[in-house]
Amino acid sequence: MKTTYLLVGSLLAATSLNAATGFFGTTSIIADGNTSDVSTLTSFGNISNAATFEIQGFDLNTFEDNGSEITHMNMFWTIDGFTNIHQIQLTPAPTKIGNDRNWVISSSTQDLVTNNGLGTIAEGDYTFQAYFEGYTNGTNTAGNIFLNNGGSNYQATFTIVPEPGIYALIAGLLGLSFVALKRRQA
Question: Please, is 123 exposed, middle or buried when counting C-beta atoms within 10 Å of its C-beta (0-12, 13-18, 19+)?
Answer without folding.
Answer: exposed
